[in-house]
Amino acid sequence: MTKPFQRVLLVSKYRDPSVLPGLQRLRDFLLAQDIPTFLETQCAVDIGDSLGLPLLSFAEANADADLVIALGGDGTLLGTARQTAQSGIPILGINQGRLGFLADLSIDQVSEVLPPILKGHYQQDLRSVLHAELWRGEECVHAGLAINEVLIHKGGGESMIELRVQIDGRFVYTQRADGLIIATPTGSTAYAMSAGGPILTPALAALLLVPICPHTLTARPLVVADTVEVRARLTASRQSAALSLDSHYSIPLEIGDEVVIRRAPCSARLIHPEEENFFQILRGKLHWAESPGED
What we know:
Radius of gyration: 20 Å
Number of helices: 6
GO molecular function: ATP binding; metal ion binding; NAD binding; NAD+ kinase activity
Oligomer: single chain
EC number: 2.7.1.23
Cofactor: a divalent metal cation
Order of helices and strands: EHEHEEHEEHEEEEEEHEEEEEEH
Protein name: NAD kinase
Strand order of the largest sheet: 3-2-1-4-5-6
Largest sheet: 6 strands, parallel
CATH class of the largest domain: Mainly Beta
Organism: Acidithiobacillus ferrooxidans
Strand content: 35-45%
Helix content: 10-25%
Number of domains: 2
């Protein structure tokens, strides 16, 4: 048994009115359990309603006592994780999206699953985080965190881009493709999986490099230790190219720009029910066949 939570901070999908019934349901349940409940400050602005709850920002939350419940899909949880990774505030995902590898509980499970978690019966899941820097000459023009992947892609253009990739200063290849995904084990079940990459278990200390529709058919996904530094320089692009972190936004790239990716010193701290495991999630989400009576 781990430490029980003393307060709950609710956050929901960005500017989506469909989350209101779910937020109200969570609010009513938590208050009925005499759990002090808050709504994240920016979330209240986005939905235009405080739900009658006191407001609390991520900066004011306490990693030792507070639980963040993120209502939405994996995108909502990823956005929350990027904001809380450096402080270590734990996050429980309630899925109101589609597939939901990270936000793996449904709103209908709240009354059954939430009380034990609030009392300290849960498992912690520390997920690695990537730190990416965009260098233009001698200037770092952008830096940010990614929980799933750092994506270098052709933007809105039709032509492939060309990237020169190095790992720890050693030349790997010059790749012509629609893009390159540098993913964490968490991101291995996201865009990287759609592009043909392998699934990595979350605790694996690894990074995954997956080319998107490469020009060379022998190009294959590459798994490396997460202690390395990956550098990808844009050497050719006829039209446009861009950098995205967790597909959250796109930053236009210029020829000669270099993206430097390392594992960040912080981790995203996810919370799951005690009995849950990664393979159970995979079976449920990917509809893998399982033998009768198999755990």
